[in-house]
Every structure is written in C-alpha cells, then in structure tokens.
Amino acid sequence: MRKYFGTDGIRRIANTELTPELVYKVAKAGAYVLSKHSDHTPVILIGRDTRISGTLIESAMVAGFLSYGANVKLLGVIPTPAVAYLTRKLNADASVVISASHNTYEFNGIKYFSNKGMKIPDNLEEEIEEVMESGKLDELKAVNDKIGVSEYCLDLIDEYVYFFRKNFDDEIEKYNRDDFVVALDTANGATSVVAEKVFKALGIKYKIINNHPNGVNINDNCGSTHLDGLKKYVVENGLSLGVAYDGDGDRCLAVDEKGNEIDGDKLLAIISQNLRKKGKLNKDTIIATVMSNLGLNKYARDNGLELLQTKVGDRYVLEEMLKDGFNLGGEQSGHVILLDYNPTGDGILTSLMLIKAILEEGKKASELANIVKLYPQILINAKVNADKKYDYDKDEEIKEAIDKLEKEFAGNGRVLIRASGTEPLVRVMIEGEDQEYITKKAQEIADLIEKKLK
Q1: CATH of domain 10-156
Q2: pLDDT score of 161
Q3: Nearest-CA neighbor of 133 among 22, 254, 225?
C-alpha cells in the first residue's frame, strides 16, 4: 500500500502533514523518476491554486527540483487543466499542480503530470515513493553549473485562453444570443481570473461571483461543492445557466435556469447527445465510474449507447478511454474528460461544451437536463481509523448487512462502499426508488462501519 499518494496525488494538512521537508523529497524523487530516461536537462512546470500555503509548498518544490538539476517554469495561480495543456504545448518533461482541489484551505496537495499532460499512473507514484524511502535522495544532487534555475512565466495563462478561442470562437459566435447570460462561480480558486478572460474573449454574457480569493476562502461555501448560493443567484437574477468550478478548476457542475442542479452524469448525457448528433462520439460510448447514477445507465441503454464503468478516480476513466479510443468520460462529481481537447478534466471546457449544446439546440438548460432521470441517491461518510479504512470488506457483519440490502433491491437499487483515497473515511453510497428508505439504510450501514472500524 502506498504511503503518500492517494487516488489524486498527495493531499494533507499543509505545513504539519504536508511539510516543506516532505515536499522537497517528493520533488527530487519525482524529477528523477519522470526524467530518468531523458538525455537533456529536464524542464518542469509548476502551477498552483489560491491557498495561503501555495507559495510555501511551491518554494519547497522548486528547491527540490533545482537541487536535482531540473529547470522550473512557475505558472502562478492557474487551473489544473491549463497546466496539463501547457505541459504538452511547451514539450515540458513533467509538471506539478499544487492544490487540494475541492478541500478546504488548510489542506494542500501535489499532483504530478507526465510529459503527455496526463496524471501519472499508480506505478510511477509507487516508484517515486520507493526512491523517497530508499535513501537514494542524497545521491540525486546537482553541483556547480548543473544546478537548475527557475523563471516566472505568468503570461502563459494567455495560451490557455487562446486554446478556447481557437476551439469555440466560431461556433459560439454563430449561435450566441443576447438574452443568454451565464453565472460563473469560481470558488475563489484557480479559475478566478482566467474564467472571466475566456468568457469575455468568446463574447458570452456572464455575471461572476466568488472570484476574490484571499488564501483562506477557497471552496468556502462556494464552487462546485456548495451550489446553494449559485442556485439562488441564478433564479433571483433570471439567468440562463449557472456554472460552478472547484478550487483547482478541473471539474464543473451546473445549475439550470430554475435553480436545479446539473451534475456530472447529466453533463455526460447532454454532451454525449450533442457529440453523437454530429457523429463525433467515438464508438457511441461513454466512460463513467461505478459512482454514476443508475439513471445514466438507463439513458445510455434507451439511446443505444454503451456505458462502461471504471473504479472511482478520473485517472481510471482516462486509462479506459485511452485503451480503446473513446473520447468522452467522466465522474458524477463533474470531472469530465473530453479527449479530443485535453487529457484531463477541465471545468471551463466542460462548461463551454454544455453552453454550446444549449445554444445549438435552442433549448433551455432544464429541457436538455431532462434527458436523464436520476434515481434518488444518498452518500454518507463513515469516519474510521485511517489504518482500518480498507478493511470494511473483510468484516462479516458489514458484508452481511450489504448483501441483505442488495438482495432486497433486486436490481432496482444498489449499494456501493469504498474507502476515501484522501481522508480517513469510508463512503457509503446507496441508490433506490425511495429517498427516505435509502437514507435510513445508508445511515445504518455507516454507523455499523464506524463502530467496527473505529
């Protein structure tokens, strides 16, 4: 079992658990693993979100990279997908995003991307950990003129804005309407400045909220994890649509003109329908995770589409897409991967694909979202001992409770239990036709897990 990396890089409390010393080691080991087959001085990009600890973690990473002999380009505050895009565009050897995504400000994290702009696979993360633990780090030391140098490249964010202009300018201009206005909730995070630049460049009318980061208000009752404020704002202002990004900008959720949520499953359905009409949905297939709602399964089945499901994590969605040439996949949480554009979840890209579909169809957001009827779903987090969170499927009493409920559902519901990759939690998700009943059952199972794994 990995010691540092979870399902989405390393994520811990900044400066107490994610210490500068640990970050320095992760940087040196990562630079070595990701560039050991290179015959030139490696170039590594670093981007971050708006957390108060961002520059602290960034400084430690820079020190580790330079000490190894890598050169660093500092991108400043920038969304995760922009870093992935620029890694490929600039032919960098690797990149790092310093962010804890949707978590509160006291957390921070480290996500590595390969030279292809993709999150590195599990085996490379394991190799980085092996180097960190092997005592080999002291040998990875540049001397004299081999020491790396860093430079600020804050203007590279404009390349990301141009990426959207290049891909959406003509289509948006063709179908755009004066009465179409979008609310943007940037979560006081990495999209706070660039989202406005993109929408302004494309001529899409917008109103923006939660775009004044102060280091501690990232994801604070805003963004894709807290939609109530956006729902109210859209309805009170009579707007056409609301879109909410998370702290690092790699996911997006939406709100229709009536204030109803459009989650990742509905986004996948809307975008798949739009792509399919143009013959652009590869193999008529959507890739999702086991967390996707049964309603997405039913939508796919009723429309002659294939729905393939992976374990939780956008990296596993991407792996499945790459394996067989699919171009649309994602998670219920709003990570949507559009492989024709970028090999990672991209909140701004997802929102533009949704907007394009709405404008081209000439329908309201609520009309498009109705193509999927979601089953009631409840997710409860059971707080457990971090060392025991993977033991839930070894306990007979827990297994018996799950089996009993699944037999009761007889195909009209399901139970999904999984350990969090980043926190000491076991997530209990139940779907069924009766919200009150599944909530009761989920709480019972969560209570049992907490009791047995405390």
Answers
A1: 3.40.120.10
A2: 98
A3: 22
Q: Look-up: residue for tokens 């554009």? A: 341
Q: Which residues contact 205 (CB under 8 A, 6 or more apart)?
A: 178, 180, 181, 182
Annotated catalytic, 333? no
Angstrom distance (rounded) from CA 268 to CA 336: 7
Residue 37 in this model has a pLDDT that exceeds 90? no
Average pLDDT taken over every residue of the chain:
94
Class in CATH terms, 170-369: alpha beta
> Which pLDDT belongs to residue 130?
93
* Integer Cα distance of 81 and 189 in angstroms: 13
Average pLDDT over residues 399-412: 88
pLDDT of residue 1: 63
* Residue where the block lists tokens 């890694």: 87
Q: Are 126 and 2 in contact (CB under 8 A)?
A: yes
What average pLDDT does this structure show over 16-34?
A: 95
Q: What angle do CA 419, 422, 426 make, to 5 degrees?
A: 25
Task: Decide: 66 and 149 in contact? Cβ < 8 Å.
Answer: yes
CA distance 74 to 10: 20
More confident residue, 454 or 273: 273
**Location of each CATH 3.40.120.10 domain in the chain:** 10-156, 170-369
Superfamily of domain 377-452, CATH level 4? Alpha-D-phosphohexomutase, C-terminal domain (3.30.310.50)
Q: Residue holding tokens 């990426």?
A: 163
Q: Which member of 35, 95, 99, 101 is catalytic?
A: 101
